[in-house]
Structure formats: C-alpha cells, structure tokens
Design brief:
The chain is an alpha/beta fold. Helices cover 39% and strands 17% of the residues.
Length: 301
C-alpha cells in the first residue's frame, strides 16, 4: 500500500471535519480469529513519539514527520510475515483509517506518561489506552512499559499501575504485553538500561506475576547474551524488543536468531531498528527480521 498525496490529504481532512469516521473505522476493522497463526508474532512498534521520543541515532527529529513514519509503517505491513503493529491511539487510528490493519494484530500502548528525559520518567503514568478503550476500539492487546529501578521510589506506582492494567486486560481476555526493563541512572542522572542479566531475570519474575491472572500476559524483553537463563524464568510467551538501530545490524539479527531458538521466545516487537535502519532500507530490514521469525516458526512445526 502506498500513501498517496490524496490519501494523506483525506486523512488530515477527515480528522478536522469527520472525526466520527475514526470510531466507525475502528469498529469495522476485520480482526483475526486468533492472536497468532503459528504460535509466533512479529509486531512493528510505533509508540515512541507518545513518550516524547522523536529522535533516532544522530537525527533528533527522525520520527517527527508523521507522513514519513506512516509510509515506513505501510512498507513494513506489506510483508506477509508481519502480524501487525504496536501503536499509540493517534498512530493506530491513522493506520486503521488507511485500511492497513485489516486481519492484522493491533496492540495499543497504555502508559506513555514517563516522558523521555523528564524528572519523573520512571513514574510512567497511564496516559494512552486503558482496558475499556482497547476493548471499545476493537484492538487485540495492550502494552505497558515497566522500568524498574530499586533505588527510585517512582518505580512503585508504575508497578502498581501495571498490575491493575494486567488484571483489567485479563478480565477482558485481551493480551497484556508487559515490557520489563531494569534501569539505573548514569552520572548525569539520566535513566539508562541496566544490562545486568540478573536484574532482567528478577524483572521478568516480577512482571510475570502481575495482576490476578497471568493467562493473557506476554512479556517483551531484550535479547541479552544470557537469553537462555532469562527465557527459562517463565512459561509465558516472550517477545524480543528491538530498541534503537545499532551500528552493526548483523550482530542484532544474530542475537535475535539465538534468542528465538528458546521455547518461550515467540517473536519480535521491533520499531526504530526496522523503520529507521542505518541504510534507510525499510523493506530489507523487515525482510531480514521476518526470515528469522519464519525460521523459528518452522523449527517448531
């Protein structure tokens, strides 16, 4: 699907003059009968801007042009192995109005209040979808970010908020995608990942137990060097996150391939690394990742 000048003008005009058509498009979207087709998921993430993250690599405004982002998302969604998207309400509605999410998985992001670089960043409030609006919007799941810093008391309210959200999603039989990220602060006080695998194992254990039921919980984790130990922590499905594009994409793909061999690892949720690859070739980046997911699916058959 190509985003033509006319289609983009119509999208902008619809928001200004016929906003009711957005709800109608969401309600009439064709959903899948099941979340996965073969036990694996490949989701493209597009929820970064809702947290104030608009830069990629050396370009501080890489994601600031919505038309460019939508065009790249449409390229990614053309690949048959891509199951769907993870997006904030604004991006999700754009894609649905454009007809790009028919028979695809649509996961709405929930807590985006921990704005990038804010003093309260760890206290990640639920400012986007809630469980009722996910259900009313005819979506397939809700995703929440859970950054855990044992030295930061702001972790506690986010942990509690995620537990409530997991419970609400399980009650409605909607996928709850929890993204546990152990964090610390650097010398300048900025929130950064803590790459200690023990911390990640602890975070997975805490996230797996959130809410009154874990039946619909999936976890989104980084592909660490000790992925086998991390993946053994739970029986719940794990999805690998992508993060920012690295200087060596081949090393990233190798790490994903290794992790996808673990029985609990069930796919990828990748955004910037595929939508804004170093060489600019979105189709090529998506195709390379899709091949890894397809090989992992084939190995399980």
């Amino acid at each position: 699907m190509k985003l033509t000048d006319a289609a983009f003008r119509d999208l902008i005009g619809l928001r200004a003059t016929e906003p009711q058509r957005i709800r109608e498009a969401m309600a009439s979207r064709i959903r899948r009968d099941s979340l996965t087709r073969d036990g694996m998921l490949f989701i493209v993430a597009a929820d970064h801007t809702a947290r104030g993250m608009v830069g990629v690599g050396s370009d501080p405004l890489a994601m600031a042009d919505r038309r460019v982002m939508l065009e790249r998302l449409l390229v990614a969604l053309e690949h048959p192995r891509v199951d769907g998207v993870l997006a904030s309400p604004d991006v999700m509605e754009d894609l649905v109005v454009l007809g790009a999410l028919e028979d695809r998985v649509a996961v709405g992001t929930m807590n985006r209040g921990g704005l990038a670089g804010a003093t309260w960043e760890i206290d990640d409030r639920f400012t986007a979808y809630d469980a009722d609006h996910l259900l009313a919007s005819n979506l397939d799941g809700g995703k929440m970010l859970l950054r855990i810093d044992p030295r930061d008391p702001a972790t506690a309210p986010t942990l509690e908020g995620c537990a409530r959200a997991v419970g609400a999603l399980n009650d409605r039989r909607i996928m709850a995608m929890v993204e546990p990220i152990p964090t610390t602060r650097d010398a300048e006080g900025r929130v950064v990942w803590d790459d200690d695998p023990v911390r990640l194992i602890q975070a997975v254990g805490a996230s797996a137990a959130l809410g009154g039921s874990s039946a619909y919980t999936w976890l989104k984790i980084q592909a660490t060097a000790d992925i086998a130990t991390v993946a053994a922590m739970t029986t719940q499905p794990l999805l690998l996150l992508g993060g920012a594009p690295g200087r060596d994409p081949s090393a990233t793909y190798a790490a994903w391939e290794k992790a996808l061999a673990e029985p609990t690892v069930r796919g990828l949720v990748v955004g910037r690394a595929l939508l804004y690859p170093p060489d600019g070739n979105v189709e090529g980046a998506v195709g390379a990742a899709a091949e890894l997911v397809e090989r992992a699916a084939a190995a399980r058959r």
